[in-house]
Amino acid sequence: MARMSDQPARWSQATVYPDMWADPDDDPRNSEGTSPDGELPTLQDFMKDYRLTLRMKCEGLDAEQLARRPVPPSTMSLLGLVRHLAEVERDWRNWISDGEPLPKLYGKRDADFDGAVADRTVVESAYADLAREQAATDAALAAHPDLGTRLGKDGIAVRELMVHRIEEYARHCGHADLLRECVDGRVGQ
To answer: What is the pTM assigned to this prediction?
Structure first.
């Protein structure tokens, strides 16, 4: 006798390799050919791929699914991750600035997750915030192509910030894998 479950069945969009998120030929993160030359282009390439991975984990879901918190008591949701990473991008600029810190996007601590509600305008705003904050951080760092340059009041090296950004996105893409599987059963890659 089969057991009843309220958990979605596991599935994948891939057809060639059914344990993958997408078929390799359809995966925009896969690039055939030579990897980037140099440390900075390599770090930028990893950053680009993790940003794209987060967006892929969220695509095809409606506002309710994006805001769903499927792992109680955690307040984490896919929409919360998008908002959190927008907030973190802004915060990273504060690390490399000598000026007054930029205000929080969403207010008090954990508001990025707490305010992730099932509303289309909240979703659209979160994606716009993320794109804007990513572009602003990228622009701020582009002015410092030497990875050994130390910036801000604490003298953080550009290299350290780049690696920390990759680590942050990678960790949250892992969360996104699990959250997405809980929402609709689609497995990560």
So the answer is: 0.86
Measured CA distances, 16 to 22, 104, 115 (Å): 9, 44, 39
Closest CA to 29 of 165, 175, 188: 188
Q: pLDDT tens digits for 75-131? A: 999 999 999 999 999 999 998 988 889 999 998 887 888 899 999 999 999 999 999
Q: What is the pLDDT of residue 124?
A: 98
Locate tokens 């572009």: which residue?
135
Q: What sign does the CA torsion over 38, 40, 159, 48 have?
A: negative
The separation between CA 133 and the C-alpha centre of its own chain, rounded to angstroms, equals: 12
Cα gap 122→64, rounded to integer Å: 11
